[in-house]
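user: Please review this fold.
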Amino acid sequence: MSSITQILKPFYYLIGWILASLYKIVPNYALSIVLLTFIVLIPFTPLIARSVKASARMQALQPELKRINELYKGDSAKRSEETMAVFKREGVSPAGGCLPILPQMVVLLVFYSVLRGLTNTTGGKHPLPNPLYIPKTSTLFENIYAAKGHLVSFGMDLSQKITAHHGSIASSIPYWAILIIGGGLQYFQVQRMTSRMPKNNQMNAQTQFVMQKIMPLAFLWFYLILPAGVCLYYLTSTVVRIFQYEWVYYRHPGIAQGVFDVAPKKLFNIRPAQEPSNSKELPSTSVYAQDDSADQNPKEDKKKPEKKEEEQIKKTPPHPRSKQKKQRKER
């Protein structure tokens, strides 16, 4: 565990520096934690989208994988070969749904360590506050040291656990509100995720039991044993994750039905603006409406009046004097 801490220590100081910078802008412990949670988790939305797609593809292949297991029940080598052939044909990786989650787990560990480090104290008979991973010259460090390690925000101390003694029932209400709201949001998130699972997946019964029963109870246990500041992070991260999953399913509505080749849904259906034409168009119902043939063949329109004039000249009778002149010439 110490080796992992040494590897992730630069990230601890990075998150601590961001938290101290946010506190300098918004001098409130709770709001700084909420803002930091949004800033850190929102960039992981593309990874969540990849994880959701990979998990949905794996669930869609469960009937075929079950058929292969039954067909080659006694031949493990052939079963593995056919299974890998299915994965290769469909372009699915067995670890595709888990790999995008690993960075989020790292961020969770870093976040937890930084928030726990805010309440760190020195040893001895008279311990003094000694916040970790934040700059010693920051306003956040100075205020925590001046408050003797207490993170008071909106009437509650974020360094205390929910189960600690808070003096009165009224003082403990905000802590239990975090527990109830966080547990309710976690249960809502799990229900939304399981409702989008394919109905033909044979593992659904076990998966739904774990997700609907075990996971909410595990998070409730975390809310009870962790400081209120860390619980506030869990609550905010649950809200962010709900919106991220809703966003993914809105942009890719075919995932829940097992359709993966549909183009992402556009946010705004904006049509490109048409360039204004210089020619003035007359309404077709007006008296100035022209014939379509005249618009298509303007050269023929110029020739038509000339032909009409020639026909009129031929039809007009000759003048009597010109007739007499013609008779004289014939004589």
User: Anything to note?
Assistant: Confidence is low (pLDDT under 50) at residues 279-304.
